[in-house]
Every structure is written in C-alpha cells, then in structure tokens.
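Long-time lurker, finally posting.

We've been working with Phosphomannomutase/phosphoglucomutase (Glutamicibacter ardleyensis) and I want a structural starting point before designing mutants. I don't trust myself to interpret raw outputs, so I'm hoping someone here can both generate the structure tokens and explain anything notable. Sequence follows.
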Amino acid sequence: MSEEIDLNQSFKAYDVRGVVGESINAEAVEAIGAAFVDVLSLAGKDVLVGGDMRPTSTTFAQAFARGATYRGANVVMLGLISTDELYFASGKHNAAGVVFTASHNPAQYNGIKMSKAGARPVSSDTGLFDIRDLAQQYLDEGLPVSGDGEQGRISERDVLADYAAYLRELVDLSTIRPLKLVVDAGNGMGGLTTPAVLGDTVLPGLPLDIVPLYFELDGTFPNHPANPLEPENLKDLQAAVLAHGADLGLAFDGDADRCFVIDERGLPLSPSAITALVAVREIARVQAEGEEHPVIIHNLITSKAVPEFVEKSGGVAVMTRVGHSFIKAEMAAQGAVFGGEHSAHYYFRDFYNADTGILAAMHVLAALGGQDLPLSELGREFEPYVATGEINSEVEDKAGAVARVVEHFAGQPVDVTTLDGTTFTAKDGSWWINLRPSNTEPFLRFNGEGATAQIIEPIRDTVLAIVREAHITN
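Top reply, 14 upvotes:
Generated this for you. Predicted structure of Phosphomannomutase/phosphoglucomutase:
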C-alpha cells in the first residue's frame, strides 16, 4: 500500500536505494517519475530511462515512465544499461535521465541514480530531496490532474554501440601488444558492456583475449555479490587469472560503473594506484595539447601518493569529500581532467565529468600493453604506501564511537580534520586514518594508510577496538 512507503528511507545523499516492497515499489517510482519532471522542469523535454538486470528494474522503469509522461515529459526508454551508459547518453544527448540500479547492494534492493541534462548530478544539494518530498506528496495524495498540459510520448533508443565507439575514441587500444584478461562481471551489467567495448560484439576486435566470468545477466547474483570492494568477492577472479596465466583481471560491480584491477599474480591494485596511473596519463595527454596545469580531483580517502604523483607530473591536486555527486560538481567547478575515489569510481572530463569504470580499465590496458613489464611491476611505483582498505563496523552510536577515538588521540602529535567524517593525520606524515559514516549503509567506515605495515597496523587495530568497544586480534 502506498501509505506504507516512506521515501525518507530510500532517498540517500546522492541516490535512491531501498528494499523492494518495503521502502521502494512501483507506485512510489511512478510518483518519483512525476516529481522528477516537475522539480527539474522537464515537461516537453526528453527524459532518458534505463535499468540494470535486477528483477524489478524493467517494471520500475515502466512505472517511472508513466509518471514522467503524465507530467508532460517525453520518455526515451534505453532498455538494459549500465550506469555509465546513462551518463554517456545524458551527456551526448543533453537530456536528463535515470537508471534503475542498486549498484552492489544485494538482490532484494533496487534504486535510482539520477542525472540532469549533460550528465550533471542530482544530489541532496541539487534537488534530490525536493524530488523526494514532492513524490511523497504525490504518493500520499495522488498525482495532480495534468491540466492543459499534454502527456508526453514514449520512444526507444539503443545507446550501446555509440557508447562503445565513444570510449574507443578516448583510449586507442588497437596497437597495444596482445593481452589476456579475465573479466568478472558478477552477473551484472559488465556482462553486456565488456563484450561491446573490449570485445567484438559491436565493434571490430582488439588485441585482447577475454576470459569471461559470470557474464550472464542475473540480478539475483547466483555466484557472488557484485561488490568487488569486498576481498571475498575477488577470489574467483584471482584464481582464474592464475589458472589462465592472464596478464590481468577486471572486476565490475552490479551496475558496472566501478572497476577493480587484479595483476598477473592475482593480487589487487588499489583504486588509489589506478587513480595515480590514470592521472599521470591524462596529465601528459592534455599537457601535450597545451594545458599547462591540469587539475586532478581525489577524495580524502585516496592514498597520499595520488596528490604526490599529480604534483610531480605538473598537475594540480584538489581534495574533496566522498561521493559521486560531490566529485562531479568539483570536476565541473575546477575544469578538472580526471578524478578518482578509493571506491574505484573514476571520473573523466571527456566523459561529461561522470564516472566510468571501463574507461579507467582501458587506460590500464593501454599503459600495460604499451610496454613489456608485467602489471605488478608497472603498478608498483604507484603504491608506495601501505593501505588498510575499507573496514566497516556496524555500531549503533557512530558519533560516540568517533568521539572515543578523538579522545584517544588527544594530546598526541595528531591533526584532526572534519572535511568528510573525521580524519586523523600524524604530524610527521607517517600515517593517516579516516572514520566516516556511510551514506547508504548502517556502517562506520574506517580507512587508513601508513608508510609501512608496522606503522599502520597497530593503529588500525587500536582504533577498531575503540570503535567496536572490543579487543581486536589479528
């Protein structure tokens, strides 16, 4: 029943995500479609609508289209798409749009990522909560009579071929040395986009021998969760890279906007290392075109190696808070050429300031295939420090847990800042840690980095013990 859906439960800081039937359903989505059009003044304009392979995505896309056309927008149905396909279509066609996905969340979830025309983000700062509030009103009171306005039309468009061709224009892989790669799509949208972009299903083949893992589109995720940030979900890929003697492995999340990279030894390259590698390449490219001091965006949880490599290459590093809408806004404000996050979101000015995992992967393939070193050696220089990775703690009183850690470091040679969560940095620069409440899940997230494992590991264990109020042992 509509009165049981409280949209406050599913609207997060920069997207919509909820449990199907509990905090999001087709009736709510129809109201959201109407509110999306009204809040963003889209009557008479095109609105792009697509979805991932989750069981409810098609139903939700149709419901959204009903609400949007009722309020006068012309809906262009894109069918099965990855999130970065939406951003490409929104940028290329200068139209607002949505994709139905819950990214890496389990199968019982679905949600919406929204974009204004030109792939500009819709976040809590740029209308997302206004859409929520109006949609809740429509859900509770019914959609208003359209008045004199005409209802919009529905049409269809397939953007996969254009998306693949555009990515190949940005990174030319036609002349690299032959590479074997294993790709784990996790039954997500990477199973559709990888063959189109890197294979030969849409465009001529490249010098790439692709070993597919879990390319079947299945929103119930029968093999493993489509969340490569969790080490457990990389095990099949790591084993396959070794079994096939591959040069590297790629793992995509459910909506295929994030990509993780495994080297030939089966070991992951950190997203910070990928950020640094791509940043150096993009700085060199635009400097050759006459751009003297290109700006690179990184969030505060990426390795401090990222700004070091950026500055050494002649770029300008700008730090921002975590979250795709915040990064995209900063990309636009700064005219940045590239941006990266610790969570393997990678943003490109040439991709409408939006994030695309496969384009970052193409940079890695170009760098690897343009020389003879294995990826482990090529990537080593970009990982000079030891990172803890992201560690989640489910704690009831997040603020209290952070306060205990602040108290622990009081009087020690440690700087404390609060740009996004709380960051503790040793005054001698030998380590830093960050504690940040998740915007989408009930966790307090820990990230840290040190000059050596001997420095950062005891700090990690102590802080996690304080956060969890329990002794942590390795």
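Before you design anything, note these points.
The chain has four domains: 2-158, 162-269, 271-380, 386-468.
The chain is about 35% helix and 20% strand.
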